What does this fold into?
Amino acid sequence: MEARVIEFDVVSKVYPDGTIAVDAFSLTVPSHTTTVFVGSSGSGKTTLLRMINRMVEPSGGRVTIDGQDIRDRNAVALRRSIGYVMQQGGLLPHRTVIDNVATVPVLNGVPARRAREAGIELLTRVGLDASIARRYPHQLSGGQQQRVGVARALASDPNILLMDEPFGAVDPVVRRELQDELMRLQAELGKTIVFVTHDIDEAFLVGDQVAILKPGGVLAQHGTPQEVLDAPADDFVAEFIDAGRPRSVLR
It folds into this structure.
């Protein structure tokens, strides 16, 4: 299996009005593991996620994948090589479920029929019945839409999977089911996953590595969930954990 190590090297993002979204952020995202960026609104976690596929360009520093600066990659080709799951699925409303799943493979030159056949298998893999393939997104529940979003992100068999608050719009019961499904899929597929959430409980549940961010995109602490729980780096981290009231979810 190919390695896909992501490195943030003193990355910053400053907008024209002077707003600092990310400040001197450095972190290694190990291959074939799940790293979670967790923090409140304004902590830069989604900005960092989108730097990986060049939806956001850093103001300073660099992001590399297996040592290659991603600025040396064609942005469109880079995005098509990376899976992306967003809140509420981000499905195209005018396209059927199966055509949503087949989108990227078809753009990459896979014949539509073959892409749809592979898409049916993916629907089953993410826990959906193949009978929904011809439905449209508005005919699905929120949980089903999120599963379709995951299937679409996996359709081109990417090594890297970006997940931006993917389960934030569903009720707690469905959210836990989706979290369990993600962990099952990761155990099978071993992707390099970067996952964004504001929920410390969710971060500790799904993450092999957790990066806690302060407002302004400052890295407060990173480590395994157990390391962070056992030794919070400062009062900010301790208070953030306490406010989240995490359950006993460590694996």
Observations:
- The first helix runs from residue 45 to 52.
- The domain at 1-81+159-246 is CATH 3.40.50.300 (Rossmann fold).
- The two ends are 24 Å apart (CA to CA).
- Confidence is low (pLDDT under 50) at residues 246-251.
